[in-house]
Amino acid sequence: MSALLNNLNPSIKAIAVVIAVCLLTFVFDPFTPLIYGIVVILFTFLFGKVNWKLYIGYYLIICLLSIGMLWTSIAFADEPTNPEVTTQFLFWELPKENVTVALSLTLRMLTFAALSFMFIFTTNMVHFILSLMQQCKLPPKLAYGILAGYRFLPLMREELQQIRAAHQVRGVRRASGIKESIQQYKRYAIPLLAGAIRKAERTAVAMESKGFSGEKARIFYRQFRVTFIDWLFLSSMIMLLIIIVAISIKLGYFSWYKGQF
Amino acid sequence: MTNWRLKEIIVMAVLSVVFGIVYLAFLPVGKLLVSFMGPIGYDFIFGIWFIVSIIAAYILRKPGAAFLSETIAATVEMLLGNAMGPIIIITGMIQGLGAEAAFAATRYKRYSLWVLMLAGVGAAIFSFVWGYFRGGYAALSTPYVISMLIVRIISGAIISGVLGKAISDALAKTGVLSSFALGKQINKARSVS
Q1: Which InterPro entries is this protein grouped with (chain B) (predicted)?
Q2: Is the distance from CB of B21 to CB of B74 less than 8 angstroms?
Q3: What is the mean pLDDT of chain B?
Q4: Domains of chain B
Q5: How far apart are the CA of A248 and the nearest CA of chain B, in angstroms?
């Protein structure tokens, strides 16, 4: 197991995933997403350093949800064009068309999840924002603003505890009933947001007083570059999809998005 | 970005990060509703996923606030673990554009409740068109799809428009927004009366 995926340029990795998802959106058969999903998971397994316990846990949740999705897309399916062509699905006799579409939607969702997990589990959030600024021309003002906002999250958790404690000290009793719990949400949310806005203002002043101008021509402590490996990864992700599509055309499984309106 | 003050950018970023978490927290709620009612379950609470663009635009009143805040919120949502992955950034951009369109139509001059509700409706329509192609709504029966659209539009107007305005006004009352467009407008109204 290597950490190749972890060391890729985060922007290129994101672009590769977005392109793959966009292409898959137009595929309407169960076979292609299934194979591609398996390939992506194998890819993550072979080339990534991932917290596997977390990965598997997350994926199981997605699988559970996808069963719900399978059910709803069969139950709420459009009128089939050939209702007489049926298939045995678990215990029911259902129109083949509906089952195929539902299966393809569900497997597609599972493949999307595999693709996005490949990205999330191998990418550091701060690196991603820095790379967006260096490779994708994200304005530094915005990038550092987002990083500052991200940094506020643990602080806000602390603040929430303080607000809760302050309420308790003053004898605010626990909410009971819908109306009171809405009131309670408001009592927490507004001070929390107000505190965050105050902090944001102070951070902006601090940044400006230390000479942050937001100019685009700046140097970086952590440099991100796009190398040959990044392009290789991008092209191999797309090539794999094309190869799988070619195989499924050959086997007669493939079905394109042809206006299933 | 040049006519934005750094203060405004950071406040927008912070709002987006906070609501990125709210967005993520509402996903299981949506999924629960979906498992009872089918895909339409999401549409009842879909307005929650546009709310930051309405709040940011209403507070800052700058071109691009709705679009940028929604995009950042979607990015944060992805980074914190949305299963949809980087594609959700594009979803966020499209929703943000929908809200932005409503503000642009008023040339960024009017921020009444109706305009905010219209922004929610705009985001709902844009997101529906996107969802139609990506989420495979095409496979659902037509009356069902139409009722999904109607429910989503109402949700966009009520949850993001009305609730978004209520949250922003409540924040303005605390005085933290005094150096931003919404706070200034309230202060002006107060000193006149």
Answers
A1: ABC_thiamin-permease_prd (IPR017195)
A2: no
A3: 90
A4: 6-180 (1.10.1760)
A5: 20
Contact between chains at B14 and A201 (C-beta distance less than 8 A): no
- Residues of A within 8 A of B12 (CB-CB) are 145
Contact between chains at B10 and A115 (C-beta distance less than 8 A): no
SS3 category, A95: strand
Question: Tens digit of pLDDT for each residue in A217-245?
Answer: 888 888 999 999 999 999 999 999 999 99
| HEC string for A194-245 | HHHHHHHHHHHHHHHHCCCCCCCCCCCCCCCCCCHHHHHHHHHHHHHHHHHH
Q: Which residues in chain A touch residue B39, judged by CB atoms under 8 angstroms apart?
A: 72-73, 76
Nearest to A198 among B82, B85, B176 (CB): B176
pLDDT digits (tens, 9 = 90+) for A136-183: 988 898 899 889 888 888 888 899 999 989 988 988 877 777 888 888
User: Chain B within 8 Å of A198 (Cβ-Cβ)?
Assistant: yes
Quickly count: other Cβ atoms within 10 Å of residue B146's Cβ.
10
Q: Strand, helix or coil at A251?
A: coil
- Are the Cβ atoms of A101 and B35 closer than 8 angstroms? no
Q: Give SS3 for B106.
A: coil
Cβ of A142 and B75 within 8 Å?
Answer: no
| Partner B contacted by A73 (CB < 8 A) | yes
- ipTM summary value: 0.88
Residue B156 near residue B121, CB atoms below 8 Å? yes
